[in-house]
Amino acid sequence: MDLARHLHYFLTVAGALHFGRAAETLGIAQPPLSQSIQRLERELGVRLFDRSRRTIALTTAGELLVEEARALLAAEQRLRTVMRKAGEGDLGTLRVGVLSETPAPTLQALLRLLAEQAPALTVDLQELTTAEQLRLLATAELDVGLVLEPIDAPDLVHGPTAAVPLGVALPRTSPLARLPEVALADLAGHDLVLPPRAAAPGWHDHVLGVCRARGFDPARLRHARDQEFALGLVLAGNGVAFLQETLARREPRVAWRPLTDRPLMRRVVAVWATTAVHPAVPRFAQAATAVLAADDGPAPLRTPGVNQPWSVVYSSNPVDPLR
Fold first, then answer.
1. CATH code, 237
2. Over the chain (323 residues), what is each successive 10-residue block's mean pLDDT?
3. What is the DSSP letter of 296?
């Protein structure tokens, strides 16, 4: 029995107190309407209308059912709305892995964009390395991760990739800080500050491979998982580090210079499992990639058709050789 449909018919008749007018309002013939009311009465075991007079009237049971039917139909509509929103990824909790070096303004921009698109969705951000995210994705403890490429994970869905060029962070006292840009071969003899291989094996090997192919074989590797720690090592003269400009510029005592020919691109990709996918994952992947790609861009990101509640300011000043 389609109880919701029968209750809807009942309320229409109760409002009109006339089967003919109610049938016209519903756009159906009168006989099916009468049959629907009779079936509802049999199902509930009561008479809903007094048909003994020229005009019909609600019985006591019918009067009570009016409010109950309205409440039930409203609850059904709320249920359908909630389920639709959950199915579209507008409700629930989305567990997201992010890299520790993600700049605070980037995280703010991403969260604000998601809050605008799905205000009832809870985003649980977890600061994790690439390797940690891949392990948690494999055990279904994360819904989606933002990891450094390259990765060896053929069992995961790979979403869009955001690529940002890296430059070199140097002590301001270094002679290389006077150059407008630095070639990798110019760094020969320097130590290199790099995240430990266990954090992102593919990225670690990629960086060293590019460096050695272009004439920079680091004298020594110094490991730093945290970007602030990496900047501290650079300040202390314990090596150079490859960083995004937005991160390096936070420390005024460090000089940041672009690398000649832009040989190192930091590529972050959204990845998730192939099964039991949270419905908000594809939307998150698109939003995250757009925000990350704009992190070192020339202007604030604008997504067509979306009013952005955030902006990112970039400096267009020429390089100061004394910085």
1. 3.40.190.10
2. 88 91 92 92 92 86 92 81 64 85 84 85 90 93 93 90 93 93 96 94 96 95 90 92 87 93 94 85 88 58 34 34 37
3. T
